[in-house]
Design goal:
The complex is a heterodimer.
Chain A: H1 8-35, H2 41-67, E1 74-79, E2 82-88, H3 103-125, H4 132-155, H5 163-167, H6 179-197, H7 218-244, H8 251-277, H9 282-299, H10 305-329, H11 338-356, H12 382-411, H13 418-423, H14 425-430
Antiparallel strand pairs in A: 1-2
Helix pairs in contact in A: 1-2, 1-3, 1-7, 2-3, 2-4, 3-4, 3-6, 3-7, 4-6, 4-12, 6-11, 6-12, 7-8, 7-9, 8-9, 8-10, 9-10, 9-11, 10-11, 11-12
Chain B: H1 2-22, H2 26-50
Chain lengths: 448, 59
């Protein structure tokens, strides 16, 4: 049975880890800014801030009510004698939540930050052409409906978490640090938004060429990577404590695995780009770093460091080839690399937990008595539980988020006008550029 | 093609759900789950293909 209140030391540590999570969001925002054009830099940062704000408000209004928490009330469907918990049943506006250090209050705080983080992911894909108000509307839908629904299934004791208890499929779908609930969710929304927006003007020419449009500030991108690492350690540690019943003694290996997965992934990405292009590519290496963080977050509590390195290395390669395949073959213009680094790497991370994960302690991911390690027999199908989770993301979340975003786009077009795109999002939507002094004056080049 | 692709995604997912409810043995369940994912992959491929940019719209 889940304790109604965590021990005080664990609560304090958990709060500390939760407070690190905004650093991951800050890192991602900086990366999105750096990978976009300079004439849209201020707009991107503004969009990041508003996405965080809208996500928090939407989650406060109804998101938490529908997501709930492990052991909380939920709407249950009875299918062939088994209860499928499919959506939370908390009151709206956090009304029955007591901020007394209880498990529910910690979950609400953590999730409010996580949903904002997920909302930042599509911004990188829509860079240089996604209108500010449209991105706010899309964020509202994500934070109020799509995210809480899936997060309830995984982190709220929903039917995916119940797969182990109900059907003996491993320990149910597991996702320690949100590779599925946050990253793949955000990455698939990014894919939907990119499809709806279409590519930036000049990205694909009639002669079949796809010229690279480089980001304007690689320093911001790489600094964002370092900030993201700190945030991710908090994210994975808090997730392990809250959603799998992990103990504080397990935090050090989680941090080590997080660091190793990111390192291996970025190293692989740098190596591949060096071999293919002659020099390591900074922005692709940054995408590899994030891909490693994402892939490692699903399994960080259940693998050893060597396995984390393998997971990260594969993630780095997957991200690089995915970026190229999406951009050149599928004509998906994703300036921030969000689809590859978050959705594709996240899916790999979820599957990797099924392949490499070794569960040696009871997992608290559903209400009631936790399953003992090996309760469903050795090798009893954790990989199958992970496959079912991935199938749910692709077969349910993607069409849902695409449909909802298309609906909004019908009434409030997502894409900025041709003139706005030419002028830059900063001037067109905000009325001022991010770098007002960043102007080349012709008289500076005149001989004096 | 776009509609078919997006209909195949949930169709594959329903196959996965059906496999969980209908079958008890791991191999049978796994086979149907993999079949469901294969349907989803086909749907995803069609969705990608349907979003390729027509030549006349490239600029």
């Amino acid at each position: 049975m889940l304790p109604p209140r965590l021990p005080e030391v664990t609560t304090a540590a958990c709060l500390f880890f939760i407070f690190l999570v905004p650093l991951a969001a800050a890192g991602l925002a900086l990366m999105n800014v750096g990978l976009g054009r300079s004439r849209s830099a201020g707009h991107m940062m503004m969009a990041s801030l508003t996405a965080l704000a809208v996500a928090a408000l939407a989650y406060f209004i109804c998101g938490f009510a529908w997501q709930g928490f492990i052991g909380g009330p939920g709407h249950v469907l009875n299918l062939s004698g088994k209860n499928w918990d499919w959506i939370g049943a908390e009151p709206l506006l956090l009304r029955r939540l007591f901020f007394d250090g209880s498990y529910a209050s910690l979950t609400a705080l953590f999730q409010m930050l996580c949903v904002g983080f997920a909302a930042l992911i599509p911004l990188g894909s829509g860079a240089d052409r996604w209108r500010l108000r449209a991105s706010c509307l899309s964020t509202g839908i994500l934070a109020a409906w799509t995210y809480p629904l899936f997060a309830h299934w995984v982190w709220g004791g929903g039917w995916l978490a119940q797969l182990g208890v109900n059907y003996g499929i491993g320990n149910g779908f597991l996702d320690v640090g949100g590779a599925g609930s946050i990253q793949v969710m955000g990455g698939l929304t990014a894919l939907a938004v990119t499809w709806i927006l279409g590519p930036r003007r000049g990205k694909y020419s009639a002669d079949g060429m796809a010229p690279a449009i480089p980001g304007h500030n690689v320093v911001l991108v790489l600094f964002g990577c370092v900030l993201a690492l700190v945030g991710w350690i908090g994210l994975n540690s808090a997730g392990a404590i809250l959603f799998t019943g992990g103990e504080l003694s397990g935090v050090a290996p989680i941090a080590i695995n997080t660091m190793l997965a990111a390192s291996a992934s970025s190293f692989t990405a740098a190596l591949i780009t060096k071999i293919r292009f002659g020099k390591p590519d900074a922005s692709l290496t940054a995408n590899g770093w994030v891909g490693g963080l994402v892939a490692g977050s699903a399994s960080c509590a259940f693998v050893n460091p060597a396995e984390a390195v393998v997971i990260g290395s594969i993630a780095g390669a997957v991200v690089i080839f995915s970026v190229e395949w999406l951009e050149l073959r599928m004509e998906v213009d994703d300036p921030g690399g969000s689809i590859s680094a978050h959705a594709v790497a996240g899916i790999w991370g979820l599957l990797a937990l099924g392949v490499f994960g070794e569960i040696q302690r009871p997992i608290w991911n559903v209400a009631g008595e936790p399953l003992a390690p090996g309760a469903n027999g050795i090798g009893s199908g954790q990989w199958l539980a992970q496959l079912i989770g991935v199938a749910t993301l692709l077969g349910f979340v993607l069409p849902l988020t695409y449909g909802l975003n298309r609906l909004i786009n019908r009434f409030y077009p997502y894409r900025v006008s041709v003139e706005g795109e030419r002028q830059g999002m900063d001037l067109h939507e905000l009325g001022a550029g991010a770098y007002p002094e960043f102007v080349t004056h012709t008289d500076e080049f005149l001989p004096r | 093609m776009k509609l078919v692709g997006f209909l195949m995604l949930p169709a594959g997912w329903f196959l996965v759900l059906a496999a969980i409810v209908l079958f008890a043995s791991l191999p049978l369940r796994a086979t149907f789950v993999l079949a469901g994912i294969a349907v989803e992959m086909l749907g995803l491929f069609l969705a990608f293909r349907s979003h390729l940019i027509p030549r006349e719209e490239k600029r």
